[in-house]
Amino acid sequence: MGKYDTLVELLLEVVKEGGEIKEKDNSIPVGISNRHIHLSQSDADVLFGAGYTLTKTKDLSQPGQYACQETLTICGPKGAIEKVRILGPVRRESQIEILLADCFKLGITAPVRLSGDLEGTPGITLVGPKGSILLTKGLIIAQRHIHMSLADAKHFCVTDGEEVTIQTTGLRGGTYTNVMVRANDNSSLECHLDTEEANAMCLKSTSKIKIVK
Amino acid sequence: MGKYDTLVELLLEVVKEGGEIKEKDNSIPVGISNRHIHLSQSDADVLFGAGYTLTKTKDLSQPGQYACQETLTICGPKGAIEKVRILGPVRRESQIEILLADCFKLGITAPVRLSGDLEGTPGITLVGPKGSILLTKGLIIAQRHIHMSLADAKHFCVTDGEEVTIQTTGLRGGTYTNVMVRANDNSSLECHLDTEEANAMCLKSTSKIKIVK
C-alpha cells in the first residue's frame, strides 16, 4: 500500500471516529484496587438478612462487575477495619482482598494469591448490620494481574495464565514481575494493582504501563 | 594459593571473627520507614514547651539517629493522622515524611523528594501537647535511597549522588529505579524504602536487595 493510500485510510478512520486517531501503542491502563470484599449469597444472607440483594452504585471496568453501596467491618485477632467496600455480583465463595499493610492491623498473615485460589488461605470475621460470620478461608492479598480479551492477548503476544513483567517510568519507576495474564472474551484491557503497588510506583487510575516480558 | 592455604586462611578468619564467616556478597539490607517527623528545636519548643529535650527510645541503624517516645498529630485540610513518630536528633529544619496514601487522607499533595530538599514543598499543621504550628514547608514523600560508607560505594562501584536500580525476587519481585546513593563516612549500609514500597515487593526488615544499575 502506497503512502497516499495509507493517508486516505487514516483520514477516513479519523472522520469515522469523529476526529480522533486511535493510538495503536502497547500501553495498558491501570486499575487500582483498595481492600474489598466479594460475598457469596449465603454469607450475604447472614450479614444483611435472608434473600438480601446488594445495591449497585457504580459499574467497574470489567464487564458485569460493580461497586455496591454496602460495606462491612472486617475483624482479626489484633484489630478491625471498618467500611470495607463490597463488590458485586455475588460469587460462589466469599473472598476478602486486603493490603499487606492491613495484615499488621488485623493480626493475620494473608498470602499473595490469584482471585479464586482460596485453598489453605486464612479466614476472617465479617460484621454486617444483621449478623456476623467467621469465614474459615478467603483472605488474600491479590496477585497483580492483567485482564484482557483474547484479541488483546494476541496483540501483546501473551497467553492466558502467562506471567509477564510490567514497566513504569518516572521518579518512582521500575518493574513488577509475576503479573498474571487473565485473557478471555469477557474481559476489558486493564492491569490490576493494589493501592500499595500503585503508590510505590506513583501510579494513578489514569496511568498506563507496558509489558516488557 | 593452594587449597590447603585457602583452608588455613578461612579457618584463621573464622577464629578471628568469633566463628562467623562473613558473607561477601552484594546484597544490601532493607530499612523500612513508616511516616515520621524530624523536628527543629524551635518547633519542638512550640509543640512540647521551651527548651524541650526529645526522649530517645531506640537507636536506628544510621549512626546517631534514634526513635523518640514523642509523637504528634499531623493535620491537613481533609483529615488528620495521629501518633506520628518523631525521630531524633533535632535538625535545622522540620521535615515530615509521609506515605503517598497519607496524601489522600490529609488532602495535601506532597512531592517525592530527597531528605533535606524542602524548597517549594507544602506545609502541614503539627499538633503537640503544648501547642500547634503550621509549617510553611517540609512535607515530603521520601525518595528511595541507599545509605552506605565510602568503602561500600567503592565495593558497589557507585558514587555519592548516583541513582541506581535495585532488584528483588519472589512472587512480588521487581525493580525500583532512581534509588539515590548517599555515601559518606558516617553511614551504615542500608536501602531505605517506605512501607508502601516495601509492601508492594513483600519486603520485610530482614530482606535484602541488590543493585543492578
From TrEMBL, chains A, B:
Transmembrane segments: none annotated. Its EC number is 2.3.1.222. It catalyses: propanoyl-CoA + phosphate = propanoyl phosphate + CoA. The keyword Zinc applies. The keyword Transferase applies. Pfam families: PTAC. GO terms for molecular function: acyltransferase activity, transferring groups other than amino-acyl groups; metal ion binding. It is an enzyme of class 2 (transferase). Pathway: Polyol metabolism; 1,2-propanediol degradation. Keywords: Acyltransferase, Metal-binding, Transferase, Zinc. InterPro entries: PTAC. GO terms for biological process: 1,2-propanediol catabolic process. Its cofactor is Zn(2+). Belongs to the PduL family. Involved in 1,2-propanediol (1,2-PD) degradation by catalyzing the conversion of propanoyl-CoA to propanoyl-phosphate. PANTHER family: PHOSPHATE PROPANOYLTRANSFERASE (PTHR39453:SF1). This is Phosphate propanoyltransferase. It comes from Desulfosporosinus acididurans. The gene is pduL_1.
